[in-house]
Amino acid sequence: MSDKYYILTFGCQMNENDSEHIAGILTEKGYERTDNVREATVAVINTCSIRENADDKFFGNLGDLKGVKRENPNMILCVCGCMMQQQIFVDRIREKFPYVDIIFGTHNIADFGNLLDEFLESRKKIVRIMDSSPVIEGVPLRREYRHRAYVSITYGCDNFCTYCIVPYTRGREKSREADDIISEVKCLAEDGVKEIMLLGQNVNSYGKGLKEPCSFAELLRRVSEVEGLERIRFMTSHPRDFSDDIIDAMASSDKICKSVHLPFQAGSDRILKLMNRHYDRAYYLGLVKKLRERIPGITISTDIIVGFPTETEEDFEDTLDIVRECRFESAFTFIYSPREGTKAASMEGQIDHETCSRRFKKLVAALEEEIAEGVIVYQDSVQEVIVDGRSKSDENTLTGRTRSNKLVNFTGTASMGDTVNVKITKANTYYLYGEQI
Length: 437
Ligand code: 5AD
Ligand code: SF4
What we know:
Helix content is 34%, strand content 22%. By secondary structure, the protein is α/β, with parallel strands linked by helices.
């Protein structure tokens, strides 16, 4: 029987994609995956540091693993991801969680196999963190799904939004060469992948520093030409970099899903400026209008932060106004969380917790109202759905996504990866319900 590995991933799709590479490296070494950490010979926790509650959850989990490690002292416990790019967390782990064996950073993933070999030989703790690295191609990968895949196109971020830790944990923005991306996408399509998600902190600025120049719009056109793909998605888009050329590329390909993730973060010009977002409310609203005109039926999702330093009731009302005006398909909502080392963390006028949570509740209520009205368009419609599998809560229900990325639970006979038509019988705020036809 092979040794097993266990991976726990916190945070965004970038981290999920990194974990798929870690899984790929471990698979090549002959390990098999398990979802039960007690069976694992190698356990990896891939951390996120975007907000404080992610830190807290991680330390909770790490504490729980003490018992597992006591029962199974040979288990190799590894910790990686964004938190490890911050010295304070590495110090805290070394001091309070001495049973962690390997600590590595976001730029050391390609080297994980060697770190593991080194540890197996020496059985001595390894801490390996680099500040940056060139783009490394050809790292093995083990996908979560057969029919859909993430493809990272940029790494890091140059935007320095004042609240955000990502530019510090993931480093400067780097793009992969378009040819490398296209070869990967072709391999995936040949392997049966129907849907790909192009990933980056800001995909729209793809192309910086390439040997062979290529813009994001051009990349989209090239990816659309790959045979076998049915759906192309991308995230995240910075509103500032959403060029007309990208809109044209989206409009001209049936394979590119007509949905964008376009965080606006805050509705007040004053707060947007303090956030260093490089656009104002009028620009954002204009962009949404243009997208809707040029790409009929487009769905837009967003990220919103409440309680940024100095946010007044009036500023917050501006955020609610955007929610009411834009008819988002969905939104991720966050209470501002100060991240040490970012500009906003040392700003005067931090907002108290009570005000934040009151605003947060109001924001969620406004969104739910808007989304509930928006989903009415799905009622009784027929949607193309790619099946992701069986619903976790009900064996008899299938689950999948529409082209607009809406979750659909439905009855039917299809199998994972099939593309089927589903008649929508009920449209809830967070998912649709239907029957396969
Ligand atoms: N506090 C709250 N939300 C944040 N985000 C990023 N940094 C913070 C922070 N310090 C949110 C932004 C971003 C999303 C990925 O996380 O909305 O778009
Ligand atoms: Fe963070 Fe802004 Fe970069 Fe997004 S664009 S990762 S919010 S700094």
